[in-house]
Amino acid sequence: SNIALAKSKFGAGSKVSNEESLEKQQELYKQMIEKSRGESTETIQVGISLARNLWRANRAIEAERLLTKLAATSKQVHGQHHRLTETAALGLRMCKERKV
User: At 79, is the secondary structure helix, strand, or coil?
Assistant: First the structure.
């Protein structure tokens, strides 16, 4: 399922398999955006997972851009105190702190 793929571990294995996994997750996220306009909780969860894996792959700028979008979308759709909004905002703060 989509959630199972998004929750799969991306930290293990060779760099090539990690990159392949990241590409698959990016494709999954793109497909989910097309179906839900990026507003469903499932799509936001997959996006947060993707951002986390981008960050782990030293692609912090991409992760920060994605989390900025996810935090804003989640806040607008689900509210400021929703679990996903808070998770995206926390991830965004972590990305920004690491840059400094």
Answer: coil
